[in-house]
Amino acid sequence: MDQSGTHNKQPIRILLVEDNDAHVKLILRAFKEDRLANPVHVVSDGEQALDYLYRRGDYQDPIKSPRPDMILLDLKLPKIDGLEILKTVKEDVKLKDIPVVVLTSSTDQRDVHEAYRHYVNSYIAKPVDFDKFRQVVQELDYYWTIFNTKPS
């Protein structure tokens, strides 16, 4: 809410780090069906995620690879796993303020504890049912764009 008491909804840039094509399609479909105007950049492995965040390789141009406002992160990724990405992001002074939401199939308590030990902002197990999955994605968007206050 702005000072006048109305919601000032600005689309947030999302970096989606997900190697499962079906899950990527579900997430993007959920955003589209709910008319959420967030620009989403998708990478399919941990190495690409770090290249994007550090503007290396194909992601050197800051116009084409803007800093995300939020990272949606799967844990089980090729090349570099999600917990290692989380640890890297939260230990880097330039990246640590980016909210990281783990969106994963894993409900293993060791993964949950390890993610929170590395300062994850939220840990969400992916629902199998599409309607529930869509609801989770929609609520995630509303929370981070309307209710959450970021430092200026």
Structure overview:
- With 152 residues, the chain is α/β, with parallel strands linked by helices.
- It has one domain (14-144): Response regulator (Rossmann fold), CATH 3.40.50.2300.
- The chain has five helices and five strands, in the order E-H-E-H-E-H-E-H-E-H.
- A five-stranded parallel sheet has the order 2-1-3-4-5.
- Strand 1 (14-17), helix 1 (21-33) and strand 2 form a beta-alpha-beta unit.
- Helix 1 packs across helix 5.
- The chain starts with 13 loop residues before the first strand and ends in a 5-residue tail after the last helix.
- Which regions are unreliable across 5 or more consecutive residues at pLDDT < 50? 1-8
Could you tell me the number of beta strands?
Answer: 5
Task: Give the helix/strand class.
Answer: alpha/beta
The topology string of helices and strands comes to EHEHEHEHEH
Keywords:
152 residues, alpha/beta, Rossmann fold, 5-stranded parallel beta sheet, 5 helices, 5 strands, 38% helix, globular, disordered N terminus
Short description:
The chain is an alpha/beta fold. The chain has helices spanning 21-33, 46-53, 82-91, 109-117, 130-147; strands at residues 14-17, 40-43, 70-73, 100-104, 122-125. Helix 1 packs across helix 5 (130-147).
